[in-house]
Write a structure and sequence with these properties.
Blueprint: H1 5-10, H2 23-34, H3 43-49, E1 70-72, E2 85-87, E3 90-94, E4 100-104, E5 120-122, E6 127-128, H4 131-140, H5 145-149, E7 152-155, H6 166-190, H7 199-209, H8 222-231, H9 234-247, E8 255-256, H10 258-268, H11 275-282, E9 290-291, H12 292-298
Antiparallel strand pairs: 1-2, 3-4, 5-6, 5-7, 8-9
Length: about 300
Amino acid sequence: MKVWIIFLLCLAGKALAAPQQEPFEEEFELIEDHEAIAEEEAVVDEVIEETPVGSNPVQVETGEFDEAIEVAEEVPADNPCLNHHCKKGKVCELDDSNNPICVCQDPSTCPASNGEFEHVCGTDNKTYDSSCHFFATKCTLEGTKKGHKLHLDYIGPCKYIAPCLDNELNEFPLRMRDWLKNVLVTLYERDEDNNLLTEKQKLRVKKIFENEKRLQAGDHTLELLAHDFEKNYNMYIFPVHWQFGQLDQHPIDGYLSHTELAPLRAPLIPMEHCTTRFFTQCDADNDKYIALDEWASCFGIKEQDVDKDLII
């Protein structure tokens, strides 16, 4: 499955709300550090282990955050668990009949973390030594109200996140739209092996890349970003749709769940304090899911320009 090389590209950025900071631009540098992204195993693992992954830019590995994604364990070939898959937080064991079953992993069996960079913060405002410790703990709470509400909130140890003011919330999409556009252009330039973008996506990005009016990547003021969006609005329509398509993976149903948003949210929250409020606001009908039209509206895309074909 394709992953978000783009988001890894951006994951190192500073704060969206502050004009002098360029969080999304630094994520491009992250891409160079992590180079590619390989498949559904986790933003956290991707960022923490710097494991090369596959091709989907903005989606930094959904696996680590996707509690429904199943992963195979490395076991001897003669072990029935070899081809038995368990989701994050669980491991395969054999029952009395020698049949493979998935059971919650004991958090104490998780590898010791090598530093704070491996820590993650849960929505319970508790710092876990690693994503392994987090998911193992969550598994033990399955079936409980606490377990249902517990999610991986962001990468890094828990810390104070300043409240997002209204004016800062309005600035967030300005910077993110520009970042998404630049990420696609970067992918287009680097896609020598044709595994970062599909041919159809390349044709769409090519139009943006070759447009002489395109605002080049840089440290721009919010005023300039707002002006460019107004004057070159059409250049932002596809990048916004593309990002939605990269996140909408489990399942591909036209809606983004908390889990599907995690690869985008988790790396940003420590740096961009308006991240949570922004995505909460995007869920206009408060049904816990963000539909394509809600997503597009959050980024200023007009209703008549919302097109499901652009996320394929």
